[in-house]
Design goal:
Strand content: under 5%
Distance between the termini: 49 Å
Helix content: 55-70%
Mean pLDDT: 84
Number of strands: 0
Number of helices: 3
Order of helices and strands: HHH
Largest sheet: none
Length: 66
């Protein structure tokens, strides 16, 4: 029942297709700000979904050595 309640929310349908805009945000933000940084710009996506989509697209976090 809980899944049905979540699915009734317009922008938070489980398994909703990723838009081009969301993927563009992921490509730009994920390498420098990671999952939590992306979550600020993608409030309808969970942390796990962001991580999984980044992996599927081959996007990795860039680490700078001091």
């Amino acid at each position: 029942m809980r899944v049905l309640a979540l699915a009734e929310r317009a922008d938070e349908t489980p398994g909703a297709p990723w838009t081009r805009r969301e993927q563009a945000v992921l490509r730009k933000v994920y390498p420098v700000a990671g999952i939590k940084g992306c979550a600020r710009f993608l409030p309808s996506r969970g942390l796990k979904a962001i991580r999984q989509r980044a992996a599927k697209l081959g996007i990795r976090r860039e680490f700078r050595r001091g």
